[in-house]
Design brief:
With 308 residues, the chain is of the alpha/beta class. The chain has 2 domains: 7-87, Winged helix-like DNA-binding domain superfamily/Winged helix DNA-binding domain (Arc Repressor Mutant, subunit A); 91-308, D-Maltodextrin-Binding Protein, domain 2 (3-Layer(aba) Sandwich). It is 43% helix and 22% strand. The strands form 3 sheets. Strands 3, 4, 5, 6, 9, 10 and 11 form a 7-stranded mixed β-sheet that branches.
Length: 308
């Protein structure tokens, strides 16, 4: 006899894995912690096997849970794709999306995966670059929406995330001890660059440019070789590199905002849909971020604020 697995139970299971805890999964799913725990228990009872090991208030997957995970993720994703395709408009057309190179790896893949599953007939073109160039392209109509990293709020953009700008070096590297300090940073249009150089000036620390390139891959290559240091947002540092601790003797660099520039709601329906996926990704990861200097707002609210 065939048995059906409730997608809601699989979603609770994958959400616990994605977020790292039942509490965070409950926040993501807008349910109580007890409700999510009950869903996990129901799934384990249905399968007749434990999916998690519970030790010292930490959850780790059992071998059975590890075997289930990939299939559960596929079933949840397929469910969402089918529901999206059957209940919403089918857009035809193109959307042009700008992304700073330093945050592509950390944020963009799940956004693209979900958007293309929901809107398979939409062609997306992406432009990678630094924030100054992307914002200019958006303002000149060359992009439909773009993300930027900014040191200060922008009245025409939504703050999605506030993150620390930190020093990055090679694992076990000693570049931070050299004098002058070797740097791999962006060209003069890079928004991190003036912050980094001003911090070093105030700290009376000599520096020299080893690489001047506004492209994350090139900077990471120099840093991973132990030749130079760079600066990046904490959430976006490559796992292959090391975040330097305060005891490395380098000055603090402050905080940056990840902003979304998008048209007012209704001007570009495909851009509206992509913007919704972008907002959802940041909301799922971080919830209501108390570090932001203003609440996340809709494009309609942004337009009203900009006009005031």
């Amino acid at each position: 006899m065939n048995r059906d697995i409730d997608i809601a139970l699989l979603r609770a299971f994958t959400s616990v894995i994605d977020t790292g805890s039942v509490t965070a999964a409950a926040r993501l799913l807008n349910r109580t912690q007890a409700a999510v725990s009950l869903q996990i228990k129901r799934l384990e009872d249905q399968l007749g096997q434990a999916l998690f090991q519970r030790e010292h208030r930490r959850l780790t997957l059992t071998p059975v849970g590890e075997r289930l995970l990939a299939s559960a993720q596929q079933l949840v994703a397929l469910n969402d794709a089918v529901f999206g395709q059957m209940t919403t408009r089918q857009f035809d057309g193109e959307v042009r999306f700008g992304i700073p190179t330093d945050i592509v790896r950390s944020y963009i893949p799940p956004i693209l995966r979900r958007f293309t599953a929901a809107w398979p007939r939409v062609r997306m073109t992406m432009k990678l670059g630094n924030s100054s160039h992307l914002q200019s392209a958006y303002e000149h109509g060359e992009l439909d929406l773009t993300l930027t990293t900014d040191h200060a709020p922008n009245a025409r953009a939504e703050i999605l995330r506030v993150d620390d700008l930190i020093w990055v070096g090679a694992r076990g590297g000693m570049a931070h001890t050299l004098d002058p300090l070797p740097l791999a940073i962006g060209d003069p249009s890079c928004r991190f660059r003036p912050v980094v150089l001003e911090a070093l000036r105030k700290a009376n620390r000599e520096w020299r440019l080893v690489l001047e390139l506004s492209h994350q891959v090139g900077q990471d290559a120099m840093v991973s070789a132990g030749i130079a240091l760079s600066a990046g947002l904490r959430d976006s540092v490559s796992p292959a590199l090391a975040i330097l601790r305060p005891d490395a003797g380098l000055p603090p660099l402050g905080r940056f905002m990840i902003n979304l520039h998008a048209p007012s709601l209704g001007q570009h329906p495909i851009a509206d849909a992509l913007a919704a996926h972008i907002r959802a990704e940041f909301s799922q990861r971080f919830g209501d971020n108390p570090q932001t200097e203003r609440k996340l707002r809709s494009p309609r609210t942004n337009a009203a604020t900009a006009a005031s």
